[in-house]
């Protein structure tokens, strides 16, 4: 007895593998980056909103590898991220008779981007599972 449909099954498996390595994985990586970025945003120091508004997510697919970056493009982002936060909560000097508020804001944290991703680290498997499942429902 001959088995039929093996060629079709192999072709379908190749298509599925390509789809998983492509759009599905990009969507899953984006889900992780967006959740980590959202957690980091709650800890990002805000003064003029330039830093928080410079947030970006970048996903790059290169062959069978998908990588992502999450960051801030403001010129001073790295300096603020690395700042020890020792001035947090202290009043800034008044300028032209007007209060300049406090250094950082009450929710600002040093290493805010790293801390945001640390906060979601345990949830990454669930985020990935949900992202792949959600993609299946859309297809």
Description:
This protein has 139 residues and is mainly alpha-helical. The chain has one domain. It contains five helices and two strands; from the N terminus they run ααββααα. The chain has helices at 6-41, 50-53, 77-82, 112-120, 124-138; strands spanning 55-62, 65-72. It has a two-stranded antiparallel sheet with strand order 1-2. α1 (6-41) crosses α4 (112-120). The radius of gyration is 22 Å and the shape is rod-shaped. It starts with 5 loop residues before the first helix and ends with a helix.
How much strand content do the residues show?
A: 5-15%
Q: What is the radius of gyration?
A: 22 Å
* Low-confidence runs: none
Discrete helix count: 5
The spatial strand order of the largest sheet comes to 1-2
The helix/strand series, from N terminus to C terminus, equals HHEEHHH
**What's the domain count?**
1
Biased composition (Basic and acidic residues): 89-98
Protein name: HK97 gp10 family phage protein
Region (Disordered): 85-108
Would you kindly provide a brief summary of this structure?
The chain is mostly helical.
How is the topology of this model organized?
Elements (H helix, E strand, L loop, with lengths): L5 H36 L8 H4 L1 E8 L2 E8 L4 H6 L29 H9 L3 H15 L1
Antiparallel strand pairs: 1-2
Helix pairs in contact: 1-4, 1-5
Key attributes of the depicted protein:
50% helix, 2 strands, two-stranded antiparallel sheet, mainly alpha, 139 residues
């Amino acid at each position: 007895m001959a088995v039929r449909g093996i060629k079709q099954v192999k072709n379908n498996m190749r298509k599925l593998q390509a789809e998983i390595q492509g759009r599905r994985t990009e969507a899953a990586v984006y889900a992780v980056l967006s959740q980590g970025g959202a957690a980091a945003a709650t800890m990002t120091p805000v003064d003029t909103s330039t830093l928080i508004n410079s947030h970006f997510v970048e996903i790059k697919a290169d062959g069978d590898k998908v990588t992502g970056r999450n960051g801030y493009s403001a010129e001073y982002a790295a300096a603020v991220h690395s700042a020890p936060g020792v001035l947090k909560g202290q009043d800034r000097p008044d300028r032209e008779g007007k209060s300049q508020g406090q250094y950082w804001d009450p929710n600002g944290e040093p290493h805010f981007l790293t801390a945001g991703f640390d906060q979601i680290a345990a949830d990454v498997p669930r985020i990935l599972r949900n992202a792949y499942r959600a993609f299946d429902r859309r297809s």
